[in-house]
Amino acid sequence: MPVTRIAGRKTIPMMPLVHYDILTRPLEGALRRWRAALWKLVPAYTASGHESRDSLRSKARGLEIGVGTGGSFPHYPAALIIATDVSPANMVTAKQKLFEGAAESSGACVLLVVADVSSLPFRDATFDWGAEALVFCEVRNPVEGLREVSRVLRDGAPFLMLEHVRPGGVLGAIAAAVTRVTAPLWGEHFDRDTITAVRDAGLRISSTAWLWRDAVLLLEVLSPKALGEVPTSDLRARLSDGE
Fold first, then answer.
1. Per-residue pLDDT at 221 exceeds 50
2. 106-138 tens-digit pLDDT
3. What pLDDT is stored for residue 57 in this prediction?
């Protein structure tokens, strides 16, 4: 059974759990594929081989921002992962999924922490890598949140981001119109410019891949203390390895 703990932290209002479940149910198939693509890249950052949970504790530590109700658990690598979410209600569901064995096959050691990405309760340079899936579309100030993520990552550590962004053309206009309704109701933005937010936060984009048209984007970004210029590459080559 994965190790679990729920620690408290001041939170801000977000989408009610019932709304999240209702709105994402029709997209669950696509969400599973997109999450799998993101987490397929993570094992490269973790300890290799079959290791005990005790040995994992002293090696690469990962951070998931916005674990939600635990949709990423089946994709976790065998690593020590601290999973955060701003919603205590989400965390209750996530904890139940862990107790039911959602991450059992991976061998991950999971700690759950209720926390706002804009005010993470961790020391500087705590984590060796990080990941998030469809989180910053709901973060009130994405640049502030990304800077906070950068603070808790070690120098040059990778952070994987899966985000829907404002597409071009007619779809972009539709995304902006929908956002005028969803943003006041529960903070959901369909018209975010994630690439600009990443750069404004001082992070460096290492690799990118479009997963659906020009609306769903997977990025690998590096904390700002990475030395030298970072050439941007296409993540698709790495996603196709082993297929």
1. yes
2. 889 999 999 999 999 999 999 999 999 999 999
3. 46
Most confident of 49-53, 158-162, 224-228, 238-242: 158-162
Q: Which residue has the tokens 């973790």?
A: 46
Question: How many residues comprise the chain?
Answer: 243
CB-based contacts of 232: which residues, under 8 Å, 6+ apart?
Answer: 205, 206, 207, 208
| Cβ density class 14-49: b for 16+ within 10 Å, e for less | bbebeebeeebeeeeeebeebbebbbbbbeebbbee
Q: Which residues contact 25 (CB under 8 A, 6 or more apart)?
A: none
CA separation, residue 197 to residues 83, 122, 130, 213, 242 (Å): 23, 22, 17, 20, 32
Sequence-distant (6+) residues with CB within 8 A of 227 are 156
CA 80/CA 13 separation, integer angstroms: 28
Say which amino acid occupies 183.
Answer: A
Contact 4, 112 (CB under 8 A): yes
Residue 230 pLDDT class (50, 70, 90 cuts): low
* Sheet of 158-164, strands arranged across: 6-7, 109-114, 80-85, 61-65, 129-133, 158-164, 216-222, 204-212, 233-234
Can you tell me the distance from the alpha carbon of 130 to that of 7, in angstroms, rounded to the nearest whole number? Answer: 19
- Asked whether residue 208 carries a pLDDT value surpassing 80, the answer given is yes
Only one residue has tokens 């659906």, namely 212
Read off the pLDDT band of 15 (50, 70, 90).
very low
Q: Give dist(CA 128, CA 100) in Å, integer.
A: 28
Please report, for residues 2, 43, 161, 174, 205, the alpha-carbon distance to residue 78 in angstroms, rounded to integers and kept in the order given.
11, 8, 20, 41, 26
